[in-house]
Amino acid sequence: MSAQDWHSWLEQLEQTQQAVRAASPQEAGKEADRCLLGAQAATRKAAEAIGAACSTDPEGGERRTIRNTLNARINEVPRRDRTKMHAQNVNIWRQHLDSIDEKEEALADALEVLQEARAARQEAESQLSQVQKQQPKASHSALDAIASEIQEAEGEQDRIQNALASMGDDDGAARLAEQEAEEARAKLDDLEASAALGSQDDEGQKAASTALARARKKAEQARQDAQRQESAQRGLERRLAEVSDRVDSLQKVHDAVAERVYMADLEKAERRLMDILQGAELQDALASINGIREKLTPVMDGSFGRAELEVKMPVFYALADANRWSQEKIELQ
Fold first, then answer.
1. Nearest to 115 by CA among 21, 29, 17
2. Is 332 helix (H, G, I), strand (E, B) or coil?
3. Contact between residue 224 and residue 279 where contact means Cβ atoms under 8 Å apart
4. Would you state the torsion angle of the CA atoms of residues 273, 276, 277, 278, taken in this order, to the nearest 10 degrees?
5. Which of 9, 174, 227, 241 is deepest in the core (most CB within 10 A)?
6. d(Cα 212, Cα 190) in Å, to the nearest integer?
7. Which stretch of DSSP H or E encloses residue 66?
C-alpha cells in the first residue's frame, strides 16, 4: 500500500469518526429526560387535584390511567347539572388535562427525536466499523516506503529553497539601468539645449544619442529579466508551498502508520515478557534451586531458606489486559 492509499484511508477514518461524534444522542436524551419530568410533574398535580393516588415517578401506564380518570371526572356530570362549585372544579381539572396533553405531546416528540438520533449514531458507528476493517496493512516495509517518499519530497523542497535563495535582485539591476538611461537622456537634452542657443556640438550630440539608445536597450533588457525572474519566483514559491504541504501530509501518514506498527511491536514485546515471567522455565529454575537447598540443609549446619522472586511489573501499554497487570507484583517461589 502506498502513502496515498494510507492518506485516503486516514481521511475517510477522520470523516467517519467526526460523523460518530456529531451523531451523539446525548442532547436528545437530555431533552427527553426533561420532557419526562414535565409529564410526570403534570400527572402528579392532576392526581392531587382529583384526590387520586400517584407514585413519585409515574410511568407511562400510570400516567395514562390518571389522565383517563381525570377526563372521566370532567365528563361525569352533564354541563346543565353542574353546581357552581363543580363547574369551578371542572375548569381546574380541564387545565390539568390540557397540561398533561401538552407535556405528553412534548415527550412523544422528544422520544422520536431521541430514536432518530440513536439510529443515526448506530449508522455512523456501523460505517466507522466498516472503514476500520478496510485499514491498509501496517508493516515495517510500508513505513520504510513512506519514509522514502518523505525523503524524496524533502529533497525537492531543499532544491526549491536553494533556487529561491540563489536569485539575485533583478529589480535592483533594472533600477540601475533605468537610472543610467535617465542620465544619458539628461546629457542629450543638455546638448540639444546648447545647440538651440547656438553652441552646436554634432559629435557630442551623436555620441549622447548613441549612449541613450544603448542605455534604453539595456534598461529594457533589465526589465524583461526582472519580469522573468519574478515569474520564476512566483512559480517556485507555489511549488514550494505544494511540496511543503506534501511533506506535512506524508509526515502525518508516517506517524499514523508508525503508531500502528510500533504498538504491534510493543504488544509482542510485552507479551513475551509476560510469557517469560509466567513460563515454566523460570518456575523450574526456582524449583531446582529450592530442591538443592533442601538437600543441603541436613548436610550443612543451618537452613538456607527458600528462594523467592518478587517482580514489580512495569506499566503496560499494548497488552489487551494491560490494566490488570500494570505495576502489579508477581511472587514466584
1. 29
2. strand
3. no
4. 120
5. 174
6. 13
7. helix 60-75
Look at residue 330 and give its three-state secondary structure.
strand
- CA dist 236 and 157 (Å) reads 10
Q: In the chain, where are the structural domains located? A: 3-133, 140-261, 279-332
pLDDT tens string 171-218: 555 566 566 656 655 654 554 454 455 555 566 666 656 765 665 666
Q: Which three cell numbers stand for residue 333?
A: 517461589
On the CB side of 228, CA atoms within 13 Å amount to: 7
Residue 311, SS3 per DSSP? strand
Three-state DSSP at 199 gives: coil
Cβ neighbours of 97 (radius 10 Å): 19
Alpha-helical runs (H) found in 81-201: 84-133, 140-166, 170-196
Query: Tens of pLDDT along 216-259?
Result: 666 566 666 667 777 777 888 899 999 999 999 999 999 999 99
Q: Say how far apart CA 224 and CA 171 lie, in whole Å.
A: 10
Expressed in angstroms, the distance from the first to the final Cα of the chain is 50
Task: Identify the H or E element spanning 333.
Answer: none
Inter-residue contact 52 to 117 (CB < 8 Å): no
Contact of 93 with 50, CB cutoff 8 Å: yes
At 222, which helix (H) or strand (E)? Answer: helix 202-278
How far, rounded to the nearest angstrom, does the alpha carbon of residue 240 sit from its chain's CA centroid? Answer: 26
Cβ contact 100:70 at 8 Å:
yes
Q: Which amino acid is at 239?
A: R
| CA 203 centroid distance within chain | 79
DSSP letter for 81, please: G
DSSP readout, 246-262? HHHHHHHHHHHHHHHHH
Cα(238)–Cα(234) distance, integer angstroms:
6
List all residues 6 or more positions away from 138 whose beta carbon is below 8 Å from its beta carbon: 257, 260, 261, 264
